Amino acid sequence: MTVRTRTRDRVRTVELANPDRRNAVSPADLNRIERAISHAEQAGEPVVYLAGSDAAFCAGADLGAVASLSDPAAFARHGARVARRIEESEPIVVAGIGGPARGGGVELALACDLRIATPEATFAESGVRLGLFGAWGGTVRLPRIVGEGNALDLSLSGRTIDAEEALRIGLVSRITDDPFDVAADLAQYPPDALRGIKRRIRDRSDLDSQERAEAELFARLHDRYGENLRK
């Protein structure tokens, strides 16, 4: 088993556990990640914590699996579907990046709601070095998160950046010694408020529709939690 799951403090940890290959993921591993997200939803767990074992986050797709692909387009669609599943899931998904994140590992992290790095984290969209690129939604999400100029720089050069530069360009939200603490803190809040905020911020509809949905959500939460304002 190269993906392990456990639940603690209302947080489901999904751990990539293939340290000999720096937690590279195979098609089977993508399926396991997707199932873990579904199980967290079914259990009503408000937060999922995606992390890597040992000293790496994720080296991306398992190159052995990639080299033997009979249908590369299907593999790209598979990874993109799992990334979208992470992005659109009910729980808040926090990526805890405690070491190298490369290629598909960066793309899985981009699909998460928060990316929290340790000082040892490093990042590279290194596909160009092999004549490839990030096909799990990376060319879509990376410019949204870090801006077009930074996205082009990282993707065209394949260069490696450290946690401080990742923080500066907005690739990560924070640098901390234990990213799990961030996930555990979030899990203390009302799950429906967490879900509602995620949906509103990720909403790509027109402005009028967004504003109506925002007002309706605020009213529902106010009805439910308004007593907190008087404490």
From TrEMBL:
Protein source organism: Halalkaliarchaeum desulfuricum
Endpoints of the signal sequence: none
Top-level EC class: lyase
EC code(s) of this entry: 4.2.1.17
Name of the protein: Enoyl-CoA hydratase
Highest taxon of the lineage: Archaea
Family statement drawn from the similarity comment of this UniProt entry: Belongs to the enoyl-CoA hydratase/isomerase family.
Alphabetic keyword roster: Lyase
Gene name of this polypeptide: caiD
